[in-house]
Amino acid sequence: MKKNNLIALTLLLLSGCATLTEGGKKIKIVDPAELSEAKKCEQVAEVNGSAEGEGDTGDRLALVDMKNNAANLGANIVVSKLRSEKTYGWMAPKHTLHGQAFKCPEEQYAKLTNAESL
Asked: Which domain covers residue 70, as residue numbers?
């Protein structure tokens, strides 16, 4: 019974972290090579995303977290290579992504290529 409760709690925690907010859905991930095209964009802050999960699931959940964090800061793009760092905890590997959040004018935002789309 305790094992089933632990599994249910784990699934509940992971599912709560896996949802993009409305703002997170609008975040474009931009490759650093394209940053020179974003001359009118204002840097907001460094932004991170992290999540526990196996393989691609951990990377995907970390990306969702990073996009939501960037949106909460008022950004509309994140410049990132999308290479996650992995550390190992007691449940599953923890994946962490790093990037720079920017707020770009609408005309500049429209010109930038989204390097990753969920």
From this structure: 2-111
